[in-house]
Amino acid sequence: MKYCMLLWPHANVRYQNETLKLAQSELRLMLDVFAPDAQISPYDALNLPALEIDVPCEMDAQLLRAVRGHSLLYALMEVRGEGALLPVCGREEAYVGGDLPGILKYKGKTNELFLQLLVNAALYSGGYAHKGDGRLELLDPMCGRGTTLFVGANRGWNTTGTDLDKNDLSEAEKFLKRYFEYHRMKHDFKREARTVPGGKSVPVSCFSFADAPERFKAGEISTLRLANADATRTREIFGREKFHIIACDLPYGVQHASLGGSPEKLLARALPGWCAALKKGGTVAVSFNAQTLKREKVLHLMEEAGLEPKRGGAYEDFSHWVEQAVTRDVAVARRVK
Prior knowledge:
Blueprint: E1 2-7, H1 13-34, E2 39-42, E3 50-54, H2 61-68, E4 73-79, E5 85-89, H3 100-103, H4 112-123, E6 137-140, H5 147-153, E7 158-163, H6 166-182, E8 187-196, E9 200-209, H7 213-217, E10 222-228, H8 234-238, E11 243-249, H9 263-277, E12 278-289, H10 295-304, E13 308-309, E14 320-323, E15 326-334
Parallel strand pairs: 6-7, 6-11, 7-10, 11-12
Antiparallel strand pairs: 1-3, 1-4, 2-3, 4-5, 8-9, 9-10, 12-15, 13-15, 14-15
Helix pairs in contact: 1-2, 4-5, 9-10
């Protein structure tokens, strides 16, 4: 059975030129979980960015749910005779709001569609892909103003972010408060403090919310936490085996000066703690500038930290040009022990 997947148009021409390759790689990871015999190819009949998906039989509910969460899906169509297309579904409904990850603009912000791809690369590489519609735990250890957390919140997950920049965290906190108030969403907010070895106190801002008042009242809530902390203190702050997914877009100009002067040193110090904070079967997905940090080096560091790096197939095709000094790539590894 054949389907046509129309891809989301993108205002950034550079990113638009890379979407076909990126969409195919992301989709391949989904199909490897739910329909490994499926074939993907470009769909040329419309002269639009689109992929053709050829599956042995009709897509089941789990595969459709995965495809609806694809970062670049615009619409999924069933291909009928003589080129006729029958609409099947659009993008998954956002738990909070479809505009949530995109509204807050700031210098250095990573595109929210790419961050959704990064999260999906982690999800469909680990042991929790079949629970993707449940309440998973996601961590971004260098969250900035929270775009990755907002992507996870829109899936109904519990999300946690850490960052050293108090101003970025404050902006994320103020924005989310305004967003909930403007949309009249039931929510709660509180401040906590966590003590790490050495007696230092880590401030944590905690949101709890639900997509409907009756669910909030019944305690069926999601959470979003913002912690002002070093990326290497993840295990010390939150404990062992707490997260299903860790997704991190490594800053191109590394601002975490306390960790040393390079992305390589940053990862070398942070990855062991990230590994310990992952549940067994959980995954780490890291995006980085391949012009300053080679992919094979990232995979080696992941392996040294006790993770199982993912190589071959779709994992080799996430590299894409962003600007003159930035070629972005993705590395993924799974905790198996």
